[in-house]
Amino acid sequence: MIIAVYSDVHSALEPFYAMTWHTERAGVARYWNLGDTTGYLKQPGKLIRAVCSLEENHPGSVSLMGNHDAGVLERYLYADGDGGVIQVGDNRVSTLRFRSDAYEIVKAHRRQLQKPKYHAEYTWLEERPLRQQPIPGVYLAHGSYSDVDADTVWDYGVKNESKLRAEFENMLARVANIEDTEHNVFRLLALGHFHIPGVWQWDAAAQSIVTYDPLQDNSLWNKALVFEDLSHAPIIVSPGSLSLPRVLPGQRNHGAYLLLRLDDAVPNRVEICFQQSIYDWEPLHQDLMSGSYPRAERLMEELVLCSHPNGTSPQSVCFEDEPGEQ
Fold this sequence. Notes:
By secondary structure, this protein is an alpha/beta fold.
């Protein structure tokens, strides 16, 4: 079974349709969307509608709630400082923190999605979970697989080695307390939010992390990476952002997503393929230039990174053999 893992589309239809043009030809059976379907660009309602249509045709697909999605819903309170955990009635919730320009866009998206014609899309967004376990041993979250009342729930779990180590240790401790043998294993954790692609594997013997970084090693794009013995050497994956790759000083980032190949008969093995997000970003660029729009200059800078420098065509499929039974 081939699964597409993507995240942080941020209201951009063009990269979403470009990805699905490729993934449908690659034989993808399910889609795991790690959140932030809304925010930043201009078409949250239409994008949600497209995601819903895709998931209806691919049973077992999952979409999570990201921090921008939660902001659109006013699901959590907003902190002017660094965020944290606060008491609201009988509940403890993690607060959200946005830059002023990003918050203006969140409010605009809220107004758009509260229009009657987007009632179904707003309801869909309300129903998104913060985290999910779609199959035994595999976990999904937007920023960090933390409890909702933890101050790390909106953290960047793959930001640096310290954050990654905390995620590995949290997951290993979490599954150790589960008595059900089908679910007391941690093989793979997929996180979005950081807008940078990568795979990290836990080396239990050395108590260290092995990094697979396509931004440092260009040969990793469009290539099947095989990971085995996942129950003893689990991995954390980040698909990057489909539409808005993070601008990195002195380094070229790319819009990206991942393809996973899983086999129910061999649960401790996975093939992972980094895919670059290839689409015509110029219409989005022109749209941002028309009139005043918060954060337009930075968004245009990020859109330009979704080009394709290494010559691989969008028709490429990373797995050498034909997809099997879905």
